[in-house]
TrEMBL record:
Pfam families: DUF3489 (PF11994)
Protein name as catalogued: DUF3489 domain-containing protein
Composition bias type Basic and acidic residues, residue spans: 89-100
InterPro entries: DUF3489
Region (Disordered) location: 1-33, 74-100
Lineage: Bacteria, Pseudomonadati, Pseudomonadota, Alphaproteobacteria, Sphingomonadales
Amino acid sequence: MRPVNWACPGSGGHFGSRAKPEARMTKAVTTQKPTTKLDGLEKLLKRKSGASIAEMITATGWQQHSVRGAMAGALKKKRGHSITSAKNDGTRRYRIEVAQ
């Protein structure tokens, strides 16, 4: 039989009763989903002026073929956006058409 003044296993070395329930409760933390590069790309394309490939490359750090693939795969097919392009002053700009 062990002496009475030993701490109970799992008590963290404390004698006597465990911490009160109020002391163990933590605040509810609301966390937001971190913004991804794909979310940033979507935000660029939703602007009224849209975005050029060069702007999308700068914003994401991706290569040109990766930006085009993200537009075709993730934004068009998976997220269901309609992406249009227009060539103004020699620069092609892409944008997401907002359904009305």
